[in-house]
Write a structure and sequence with these properties.
Structural class: alpha+beta
Number of helices: 1
Largest sheet: 4 strands, antiparallel
Distance between the termini: 64 Å
Amino acid sequence: MLLTTVRKVGVVLAAVAGAAVLSASPASAAQQCGNLGGPEGGTLPLCKSWVWDGNDHDGRWWTDGPSSLPSQTYLQRSEDGSVKNSSFSGSYQDVTKIAFRLCDSLSGRCTSWW
């Protein structure tokens, strides 16, 4: 009888310890959306999401509605300081810091990073 009780307590303790490890895991998702204003007018509703995997972020970005940007406006993203021309949706992995901005190919102007 004592051995059975000890086994049951051991199983319960193992289950509680396992749940505590899962709830303390570093992976937590976050999301942010905003209306980015273009350097020559118009707006782009853009969302970005990310998950911290313990040492960097994995995530994605996408438009969240219609854009009113002029046709010469394009999106750039910065992944850890490396700037890339970007599609209006996509994903990334192993990035410490990501940011987006809009640029205009006719005026050469860009907005600040978001």
